[in-house]
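Dear all,

This email documents one entry for the complex benchmark we are building for the journal club exercise. For each entry we list the sequence lines for every component of the assembly. Then comes the predicted three-dimensional structure of the complex as a token string, followed by one or two observations. Please use this as the template for your own entries, and keep the labels exactly as they appear.
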Amino acid sequence: MIKKKHHDASVLSSNLICRSIRRWWWLFLGPVVAAFVIGFVWPFIQGIYLSFCQFRLISDAHFVGLSNYIKAFGDASFRHAFWYTALFAVVSLVLINVLAFAVAYALTQGIKGSNLFRTVFFMPNLIGGIVLGYIWSMIFDGILSKYGTSILMQTKYGFWGLIILMCWQQIGYMMIIYIAGLQAVPEDMIEAAKIDGATKSQTLFKVTIPNVMPSITICTFLSLTNGFKLFDQNLALTAGQPFQMQAGGTVVKTTEMLALNIYNTFYGQSAGSQGVAQAKAVVFFVLVAGLGLAQLAFTRKREVQQ
Amino acid sequence: MREHTLSAERRRKTILSIALSVICIIYVLPVLTVVINSFKLNTFVKTDTFALPKGEMWAGFDNFIKGMTFGSYPFWKSVLYSVVITVLSTALILICTSMGAWYIARVNSKFCKVVYYLCVFSMVVPFQMVMYTLSKTADRLHLNTPWSIPVVYLGFGAGLAIFMFVGFVKSIPLEIEEAAVIDGCSPVRTFFSVVLPMLKPTLVSVGILEIMWIWNDYLLPYLVLDINEYRTIPIHIQYLKGSYGTVDLGATMALILLSIIPVIVFYLTCQKHIIKGVAAGAVKG
């Protein structure tokens, strides 16, 4: 609408600015596009290409068709990592979002010390994944050593340990987003519900939650993709232990997630598996991007238009 | 009746406060555990993790001294390189992406749209997808030192920054820049003395997000840098644990404490901006 109204004026002025900047494209756009090509576009294209190749060095890559993909899907450790990651992502998504929303809701009730609580809850986000992993591995081992075991001994310890770690780290982050969303809910709408005789829980579920759907969309998107992409914490906490020998002689690292599995295929195993690793990486990318977009579409539909 | 509901409300708030305080204490405990264990003799870290370092467990500052000189690589060098990489990369990202975003938003040609959508697309691509080829490319172009790795960070991190800056530039009225151009300002001056000051809130938000990412990043510098010469703090700590032989847990905790302290000080001083930056980044993302 506004565009139409000022159509002539804006075209004129944008021409004025547009024309004068255009000559400077090499200064404004040049550096960032050059770096973007080096740091993203070229590696991405080359990555897709190499996933169809057998190679040890990039220079001696030769085309092998889909065989890397067949090997990737045939790899028991990759399939295990997929299910393990999916389970982890779903459990952490639900726990983190429910808890973060509850904390954010409590902190917007106008109680004393809200700022202090918010400060403390957000703090773990500034600590890096590697450091977090080692802090928690010390804590879990401190508890489990009393029972003569360790976090590296059982898959379920590693799983729940990582869930606790991620909750501790991410709840504060999601809480910040939920607080911003809750503060944007129109006060008079809640007032109106109260006057109409709605109970507290009715107000919460029928008024507040539909109004914070945009925040829920973002937080579930972030926690889902974060869960799938998790690497540092996984490496530092268990690095895939405990290991399990399969009947065929292959070793499955039972707490290894997808990102770590890809990393280990690239750099850990016998030479010549880089092609398979790159194929796994492509599958991983399609999975993360696809899930992220599907999830966005799913929750976007439930957002209230204001 | 009114008084009754008021007191019920007050009681509800008190209960909430108590519950939150309890969670708060639980939240701080892991960090406190690091603090007490960094003063504890190594042999007791595993057996008495949650005990205060009293009596025979007390190690004084030995862990810190040991940690600083542990292994073949001095800790202060890792700190130095972490600072160099974070500061240079963040500065480069802020300057280059804000300039690029202004150009994209104002010129809006077909090429600009392609770049913009590629940036948005890059945000959903996990690092593992490009890590092998990116590290090889960086190696070949000699982007493997702390002074050149900012280019890699600019390339891989451009997506979010461009996205946030373009969103903000579009909300700035054209008239101001127009006036500057009519008054004879060159585009370069228009950008640096008119546009950039207006972008300040977004600069702070993007800067905070990039600092949090780069300071804690492990895999990218680990794959790109020449590890024997350059290490960052996360790499250093990973090497402490990953090296063969017994790991000195006390010394590790001392180093972890040393690496957390500056982060917490930074957080407490710029808390407002950090929280705002996170909220802004999320709303756009």
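Observations: The radius of gyration of chain A is 25 Å. DSSP finds 15 helices and four strands in chain A.
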